[in-house]
Amino acid sequence: MAFDDLQWLGETAGAELLGQRFLKALPAPPLAVSMDVLNRTSTPLNTRIISDTFRNVLLNSGRMRFVNNADRDALLHNAGQSTVTMNIDARLAAGKKLGARYVCHGWLTETRDLRANQRGECHYQLAIELTEVASGLVIWSTKKERRIALLP
To answer: What is the pLDDT of residues 104-118, one digit of tens each?
Structure first.
């Protein structure tokens, strides 16, 4: 999967969130903390490209604010954690300590379709959720898919 494919996933997910009524109805841009998209594929991919692109789409729109990633990483480092190893409860606790209203988190998975005497495809699927820190409720989620032809 190329850089452009990872970036496309982040851009389309971010654009979808910007179109949601609940976000448009808020009186002020909410503060969120962005957790890295987890790579649950068999391919070593830099999924931070997706996380950063998603965050930048939302931040540059002026409709959401984000905790600085360095502040997030320092808090997690001091607690002996990372965005990769945390469960949802730990992510929400970190969001609360950082003063965020929402936690953005997601994961990338793959399905390989290999047919005899054909090149086959790999289907990458991105799932992203926006979870409210106070209640722990998922208030928005999306899935985006990208198909990549496998080389023979």
So the answer is: 999 999 987 666 446
Q: In the structure encoding, which two tokens stand for residue 18, read together?
A: 């910007």
Ranges of the chain whose pLDDT falls below 70: 113-119, 150-152
Residue 121 to residues 1, 13, 63, 96, Cα–Cα distance (Å)? 11, 22, 37, 41
- 89-98: Cβ within 8 A, 24+ apart: 89/136, 91/35, 91/131, 92/131, 92/133, 92/136, 94/33, 95/32, 95/33, 95/133, 96/133, 96/134, 98/33, 98/67, 98/71, 98/72
pLDDT at position 122: 83
Which run of H or E residues covers position 9?
helix 3-18
Alpha carbons 5 and 136: distance in angstroms, whole number: 31
CA 34 to chain centre: 7
Strand 138-149, strand 38-39: pairing = unpaired
Q: What is the pTM of this model?
A: 0.90
What are the helix (H) ranges across 19-47? Answer: 21-25
The tens digit of pLDDT for each residue in 24-48 reads 999 999 999 999 999 999 889 999 9
